Amino acid sequence: MSSSSAPILLVDDNAFSRRLLARSLEMSGFAVLECGSGREALELIEAGEPMLLVLDYEMPELTGVEVCAQVRANIQPAIATLPIILLTAHIGEKHEIECLSAGADDFVTKPVNATTLKARIQTQMRLHGLRTELREQKVETDRWRALHELDLDAARSTQQAILPAHLPGISGWQVAAHYQPLIQVGGDVYDWLRLPDGAWLIWIADATGHGAAAALLTTFMKLVFRHAATEGQSAGEILNTVNADVFAVFKGRSFLTAACMIVRPGSEEVIFAGAGHPALLIRRLDGHVESVSSKAPPVGVHAELRCGITSIKVEPGETLLLYTDGLYSMKDESGERLIPADAQNLIPPTSKSAADFLEQVVTALNSGPQSESISDDVALIALRRE
């Protein structure tokens, strides 16, 4: 029903009073439908006639308050939300509370002043229009949210499919990994693959943003890293190639941080390269934590990248940690934002294995005072020399 064509339903068992009031409203430009009982009023309402109800408080069989209560209890939202104005000869707080408690939007005392009633009707019609508009907007918002959730679920399935299902078997080394997106999907990704010479490439990347767009970018990164691994054997050369591929597609509009390690089975040496990525952390045997910083800007910012490498000697029992900045993108107890150096505070002093090391890091991350303020995806890879 539209507010421009639907009538006001005037309900009063006194025919003379009802006719006078109806004529006054009609002279003010309102379409008016009349009836003399609450029962008839409910039938007309079910038929979808009125846009607003004006009910007399005192009527036989069903009073105005009872009609009001039944309307508000209707299962159809269009009926249950109809504006209702009660007309009452009673003056006092008790009756006002009774009218409003029954669900009336307003009330007018008798004898009815036509000008006052007209103003109250116009006010309730405007409010009802606004409420209807808000309901329609909510329906549209809910529909959009449902579609968005479907997109996120599809992106989540895609991202889970590109994350490695199995840990690499590297002789002399243990590997563990953990992924914790902020929402269904995130911008963090990691992978490993065996190079033609038998060495292993382990890489991690952190794309800007979250959601479906970030998930698509992480899918692209897996393809880019696999292509780069066929172009060069140096960790630095691999990141240089990754950068060239990303820039060729996005022309500097999107960028990400990335880092990689080359690990050879049975070797004590790891080759590290980073592009704008958080420093590699190494838990040494004596208990101190060493960090190795990236030597190049983020991937995708410039057309060319010249990424340097760092050779790291790792003793048996020492553990390396690759991670994304979600590990420290949170606030401490005082509300201050953490800095990269704070990531070292989550490193366990001792661990039995790479899996135990990572489990302790994740436990510290999710159980400390800062856990409620985690505001980014978290990806972690632990590498421990046996």
In CATH terms, what is the fold-level topology of the largest domain?
Phosphatase 2c, domain 1
- Please give the largest β-sheet: 5 strands, parallel
**Helical/strand content category:** alpha/beta
Kindly give the count of domains.
2
Global mean pLDDT: 87
Oligomeric category:
single chain
- Which architecture of the largest domain does the CATH hierarchy give at level 2? 4-Layer Sandwich
CATH superfamily membership of the largest domain? PPM-type phosphatase domain
Strand content: 15-25%
Radius of gyration: 35 Å
Q: Topology as H/E string?
A: EHEHEHHEHEHEEEHHEEEEEEHE
Which labels suit this protein?
2 domains; Rossmann fold; 5-stranded parallel β-sheet; 386 residues; 9 helices; 37% helix; Phosphatase 2c, domain 1; 5-stranded antiparallel β-sheet
Quick synopsis:
The chain has 386 residues and is α/β, with parallel strands linked by helices.
